[in-house]
Write a structure and sequence with these properties.
This protein is of the alpha/beta class. Helix content is about 55%, strand content about 10%.
């Protein structure tokens, strides 16, 4: 019998027969089900340093590019003035000798086109939005229409891209590891109550009594919210159905540990044996041999069982009939499929980005329409 306070008045408990572990048996859920894994690869200080470094490189690029554009415009203006003066002198000398032919006009038009094409980028004013787009493009391994022509700007751009490559490599490797990791955050009954795991209980007489008559707040909340929510059938089920639901994941099944371990050892895949956790629901679940209150056989039974324990018979029965927790031998060799919940935060970023882009487009259309009317 279980040692309960209600039985102490009518029953004398003598010795423990066999140690029994009873509790919620479940597979630890993937880390991505309880945390946003896209923020876990780096510590908060590392994220702050990354943002500061990229911002610093962006500021250096902004002022470097503006200085380069200003110098390019000044040199182009001076070269145009020199070329116009030379063409005027040469034109006056040739005007009396010959007229330009079709080929000369073609050559001059090609030269003007080449000059214009080489000066388009230099004539464009660099803004903060261009630098932000350049920095984000570097972070996302993308290019940018803005590029530097001077050594200082190229050094800053090279530094930015090299740093981002190392960060990107470290981040990607950490994400791959985190996708295959399980969480260890479920350590108490309160954590189990607040987790997304469903719950079920093996349909035995004493479990129905124990779960219905708990007085502690967490235990009562588990029964009222997870086991028997209002308007639903209480989730007391047979051992086969409960263990199959636990095998599929996101389900905690209350069972005697040895019975559950035996089914896991016989039916679960090697990769499914990893992350198995037993969380006790009741403090003491060991079975004790009991006699009637005040029985003269109490001392006799106690001495007899103590001799069985001393001579190893009890340990022999324990090793023969009780199954230990299966070992995880395929933690690093198993293949883990990525589900929708794993990259759900990335989908949210994409959706929010599309919504912001659509809202900005509508706002631009309204502003342009209003400006056109005025």
């Amino acid at each position: 019998m279980f040692l309960l306070s209600e039985r102490l008045g009518v029953i004398d408990f003598t010795v423990m027969t066999l140690p029994t572990k009873v509790g919620f048996l479940f597979r630890q859920p993937p880390l991505s089900s309880v945390r946003n894994i896209f923020t876990l690869p780096f510590d908060g200080h590392v994220w702050a340093c990354c943002v500061a470094l990229i911002t610093l490189c962006g500021i250096v690029l902004y002022y470097t590019l503006r200085w380069e554009r200003r110098e390019d415009r000044a040199s182009q203006k001076a070269s145009k003035e020199v070329s116009i003066g030379d063409n005027t002198v040469i034109g006056n000398k040739r005007s009396d000798r010959m007229k330009p032919g079709p080929g000369d006009w073609a050559d001059s038009s090609i030269k003007e086109g080449l000059v214009e094409s080489t000066t388009i980028d230099s004539d464009r004013t660099v803004s903060w939005s261009d630098v932000v787009l350049l920095s984000l493009g570097a972070v996302c391994q993308q290019g940018s229409p803005i590029e530097s022509h001077g050594p200082s700007g190229r050094i800053a751009s090279l530094l930015l891209f090299v740093v981002v490559i190392f960060l990107y490599t470290s981040y990607s490797a950490s994400i791959v590891v985190l996708l295959q990791s399980t969480t260890g955050s479920i350590r108490t009954l309160k954590d189990l109550l607040e987790s997304p795991l469903g719950m079920g209980v093996e349909d035995i007489v004493y479990t129905r009594y124990l779960f219905k008559n708990q007085s502690e707040p967490v235990h009562k909340a588990i029964y009222n919210k997870k086991i028997a929510p209002p308007g639903t059938k209480p989730r007391f089920m047979d051992i086969g159905k409960g263990m199959e639901m636990m095998r599929k994941g996101f389900f905690a099944f209350h069972i005697e540990a040895s019975s559950g371990y035996k089914i896991i050892l016989e039916t679960f895949e090697e990769s499914e044996k990893c992350g198995i956790t037993l969380l006790p629901y009741i403090g003491n679940t060991d079975n004790y041999l009991s006699v009637r209150k005040g029985s003269p056989y109490r001392e006799l039974v106690t001495v007899a069982y103590r001799k069985l324990q001393e001579r190893g018979f009890q340990q022999r029965a324990l090793n023969r009939y009780y199954t230990n927790k299966p070992e995880c031998t395929a933690r690093d060799s198993s293949f883990v499929s990525v589900g929708l919940i794993d990259f759900y935060p990335a989908i949210l970023v994409l959706v929010y980005g599309l919504m912001c882009a659509a809202g900005t487009l509508i706002l631009e259309l309204l502003v342009n329409k209003r400006c056109g009317m005025t």
